[in-house]
Amino acid sequence: MQQISRREQIAANTRAAKARRQATDADIAQALDITRPGVSDRMNGKARWQIEELEKLAAFLGTTLDELLAPAETEAVS
Predict the structure, then answer these.
(1) pLDDT of residue 4
(2) Which of 28, 39, 55, 73 has its CA 20 to 30 A from that of 21?
(3) What's the N-to-C CA distance of the chain in angstroms?
(4) What are the average pLDDT values for consecutive 10-residue runs of the chain, which has 78 residues?
């Protein structure tokens, strides 16, 4: 099983929350007052989120900061 980086996990969590809310990068950029390419870079793990951005993002997407920062669930080994 391949380990993913913390940045990649946060990016995956933010993409999942974004999809559940059916938000666009443009919606998020406006809510966070950052550029749309900046949102894309963060969503793809190419740039780091600032904690303040993640707090605003969680509120905007109707989720929690803990959910956005949650580690990947591991598969049970038999």
Answers:
(1) 82
(2) 73
(3) 15
(4) 82 95 97 97 91 96 95 58
Contact in structure between 61 and 23 (CB atoms under 8 Å): yes
pTM attached to this predicted model: 0.84
Report the C-alpha gap between 40 and 70 in whole angstroms: 20
Q: Which residues contact 72 (CB under 8 A, 6 or more apart)?
A: 4, 9, 12
Half-sphere exposure of 25 (CA within 13 A, CB side): 10
DSSP letters along 19-60, please?
Answer: HHHT--HHHHHHHHTS-HHHHHHHHTTSSPPPHHHHHHHHHH
